[in-house]
TrEMBL record, chains A, B, C:
<dbReference type="Pfam" id="PF01894">
    <property type="entry name" value="YjbQ"/>
</dbReference>
<protein>
    <submittedName>
        <fullName>Secondary thiamine-phosphate synthase enzyme YjbQ</fullName>
    </submittedName>
</protein>
<dbReference type="InterPro" id="IPR035917">
    <property type="entry name" value="YjbQ-like_sf"/>
</dbReference>
<dbReference type="InterPro" id="IPR001602">
    <property type="entry name" value="UPF0047_YjbQ-like"/>
</dbReference>
<comment type="similarity">
    <text>Belongs to the UPF0047 family.</text>
</comment>
Length: 140, 140, 140
């Protein structure tokens, strides 16, 4: 088995949903050495998350932000964890509704994504700062 | 390490939640050769998804459809990505609330699922058509 | 490749969100033998789930319970799967909104989590009883 792992820091992104597929591919050129396998991207935070979705039309990412803000509102009367600001507790919930990791098959040295699929960094805080991600690729 | 990978096309399913555990098992008979490992099922689309849930009572799957339609409604006034029809943007959001993949442990040549667990294809479009999935099993 | 797998039974937890990171680490001391790899925790149930979130302030976990109860209410008029009690169908939906598994990178014999990340057992039933989880760690 081959296994490669990289930890990188993403520059700060504004609150919202951002395509990071190219950043991942740049970080792990060893992917080309894997014929069959799997790649994981893991985010080491609890107020930002990862998901896979549409990679072409930026309005999809705007609508994600609008909908998640509605489904997980700020200042809900039942929140007790409020001392880090109104964007904090919703950020934690959104992060678990999405995921701390994505797992993608590797086929012939490439991510075997559908043509419309890309990896999103989901930044749920107003000022989340830099985010650390761990990329692990393994296979034969 | 042993690793096996298959890409298959699922026939079109109507909008809703469908059990596909048996289709997965049929597609990868090499599973029986793995004593300890993991299986991934990955869907190459952004308006259909995968999850694991109850495999016995079909009303659970109906209730999933009802609830997701309520939680992620069509025609929300804040949607900007509307040109592919009212079922499109909700489909993208539902796909990320669920997942593009499921990962299941393999034990003694079989999926180590609970007795009530099955894999769902979650078809979020009215006419989603055929869906491509990649099945990867690895272990020793 | 090294691969280790353990199946354990968690004692009954009350409805809500509970940190189980230490229980996982205790169950798989072989983790220390893996320099680079990945750990999966999988729950063999459809009315309890797993997620990764904030590991310090217990009010985060209380707010998770409050918000999920609001987002996926009991006794929704459209539920058809009602014969196992009002907490059952919401439990299935919550389980799929979160996940049946978490996957975490392993680096130098340890889980490569962020300092604020922990693994939650999400018990969605009023009386869920003991829960079986399968822990699989692999790598080199």
């Amino acid at each position: 088995m081959k296994i490669f792992q990289k930890e990188i820091a993403l520059k700060p992104h504004k609150r919202g949903f951002h395509l990071i597929t190219d950043l991942i591919l740049e970080a792990i050129p060893e992917l080309s050495q894997i014929n069959v396998g799997q790649l994981q991207v893991f985010i080491k935070h609890t107020s930002a998350s990862l998901t896979i979705n549409e990679n072409a039309d930026s309005t999809v990412r705007l609508d994600f932000e609008s909908h998640f803000n509605k489904m997980v509102p700020e200042n809900a009367p039942y929140y007790k964890h409020t001392y880090e600001g109104p964007d904090d507790m919703p950020a934690h919930i959104k992060a678990s509704l999405l995921s701390s990791s994505v797992e993608i098959p590797i086929t012939k040295g490439q991510l075997n994504l559908g043509i419309w699929q890309g990896v999103y960094l989901c930044e749920h805080r107003d000022y989340g700062g830099s985010r650390a991600i761990v990329i692990t690729a393994f296979g034969v």
